[in-house]
Amino acid sequence: MAILSGAVGGLVLRNPVMLAAGILGTTGSSLRRAARAGAGCVVTKSVGATPREGHPGPVVVQVEGGLLNAMGLPNPSYKIFQEDIDLARQGGVPVVASIFGDGPEEFAEVASGLDADCFELNLSCPHAERYGSEIGCEPSNVEDITRAVKKNVDVPVWVKLTPNVADIVSLGKAAQRGGADAVVAINTLKAMAIDVETGRPILGNRFGGLSGPAIKPVAIRCVFDLSATLEVPVIGVGGISSWEDAAEMILAGAQGVQVGTALAGGYGIFGEITAGLEHYLVRKGLTLMELRGAAGRTP
Amino acid sequence: MRPVNAVIREVAEENPTVRTFRFDPSFDPVPGQYLMVWVRGTDEVPMGFSYRDGITVQSLGEATEALFGLGPGDSVGLRGPLGNGFDLVGDRILLVGGGVGAAPLALLGERAREDGLEVTSLMGFRCRSDLIFRSRFEKMGDLVITTDDGSEGVCGRASVGLERLDPGSYDQIYLCGPEPMMIDVIRRCHGSESKIQASINRYIKCGMGVCGSCCLDPEGIRVCVEGPVIRADRLLESEFGRYKRGPSGLKEYCGR
To answer: Which of A234, B1, B29, B152 lies at a CB distance of 3.0 to 4.6 Å from B81, suitable for a disulfide?
Structure first.
């Protein structure tokens, strides 16, 4: 699989297909399982400064073309998460800690308290008060928080962006100014489902974030625009569930891709996507680097 | 799937803290499978089938208390049947249940009898007034009852009742109950672990194998889709019997 190996966002990966944040990332054992199933690296569930139990259920609803979720950032806090990162590392691939906080100080506190191979800043969760996209929709917050974390760690820092804004590129530029090693696009789209029998919103939190195939075209557009403008690499996420989706995301300009909702079909997805990508590159006689962003270079 | 609207057809009080809710529509579950029960306005919680159209619930927390406030004509939202249920194996089987854990085993035993299997049941309760589904188990075959206080049957936990039986003589043993009781039974059946199927309880939220809140250490078994029924030899290699994760992911160590 040498054809798939290379640098992604400051890490060297055996392949560019990663486990996305928030999916099977609560425990070191499930992260290690994803690594052993073939992921190029794994991103943990987001951890913060204090334990949170998350929103009341339902926390997930299956909708047309994907999943709607409002987990509510459940996590045991960074103070006891290190043992799970250490266990995940036994999977033999880099472990990216997804972290959240309410501002630069709290982000810096969480990052300083963890030993991980990379940090992904969750500035984009659409359903938690005071966190995620509530602060991450402001470019100045994105810049300040990125800078604060960069100052406190000596591993790559990725910034995961929200698509729930008029101009995602301005958020990407802010992350770049703050010193980000890569941006990750996109988090879920703010969305809602209502039970017609009772007129009640289905999610316990009323609204949540949409993931899965329905959001892939949105993600492709965001990655295309971001990679056309930014100097730092872009990691694409949103609805990837086949090697064709991964190839499309790389054609749009992604240096790596993340897979989330498709894990509902099992851990075998990593092997399927990497094998398919490899065959595709061989058939086309292309390297990953030649494939990346090719859609923007077509006449 | 989205939650299906289900109307409560009937509520039966099985004992002072346990009730059975029968729904319209009915489902076609494999015994051991579960439903995500959305008690609107409160929470969504996993509950195993005790009938094709019903669940049997012990009032323990916010969601179950809210469910106990509902009666015939009221409705809930249901997702399911979900998960991996019991697999019927062989000709002679033993059901070992504790407390409300008897519920999915009652459905399993009835299915086994329909298929012509010989069924023996060992059911443990705290006391005589906690007994549930006695007549369902009696109809299937031999039944041994144990109570912690000796007010009915053999005095002691269900695992003590194992001494009255020959666990090695059954083709398969099916377990559901409190975790300390289940791990005790598994240890007493040393050497037969691959013939024991246990339905276990973990913090299930999504029910579709994506959120990771129910994963078992150290292999990352997703209880919500690969379970809740898991073979005992796999359980012995896991956290089972030692700790489980709570809502935030914090470990909660099992009291004995």
So the answer is: B29
The ipTM value here is: 0.94
Tokens representing B211 are 């959120």
Around Cβ B159, how many Cβ atoms within 10 Å? Answer: 23
Question: The domain containing residue A162 runs over which residues?
Answer: 2-297
C-alpha dist (Å) from residue B7 to A68, A196, A279, B54? 25, 15, 52, 11
Find which of B35, B44, B239 to mutate to test the A interface (most A CBs within 10 Å of its CB).
Answer: B44
Superfamily of domain B4-82: Translation factors (2.40.30.10)
The H or E element spanning position A99 is strand A95-99
Chain B residues within 8 A of A191 when measuring between CB atoms:
none
Residues of chain A numbered 155-194 and touching chain B (CB < 8 Å):
193
Cβ atoms of A203 and A59 within 8 Å: the answer is: yes
In chain B, where does the domain assigned CATH 2.40.30.10 lie? 4-82
**CATH code, A54:** 3.20.20.70
pTM of the model: 0.95
Q: Give me the architecture of the B92-253 domain, per CATH.
A: 3-Layer(aba) Sandwich (3.40)
The Cα A26–Cα A18 span in angstroms is 16
Q: What are the catalytic residues of A? A: 125
* pLDDT per residue as tens, chain A (299 positions): 579 999 999 999 999 999 999 999 999 999 999 999 999 999 999 999 999 999 999 999 999 999 999 999 999 999 999 999 999 999 999 999 999 999 999 999 999 999 999 999 999 999 988 999 999 999 999 999 999 999 999 999 999 999 999 999 999 999 999 999 999 999 999 999 999 999 999 999 999 999 999 999 999 999 999 999 999 999 999 999 999 999 999 999 999 999 999 999 999 999 999 999 999 999 999 999 999 999 998 77
**Distance from CA of residue B113 to its chain's centroid?**
19
How many structural domains is chain A composed of?
1
What is the Cα–Cα distance from B239 to B230, expressed in whole angstroms? Answer: 13
Q: Return residue ranges of chain B for CATH 3.40.50.80.
A: 92-253
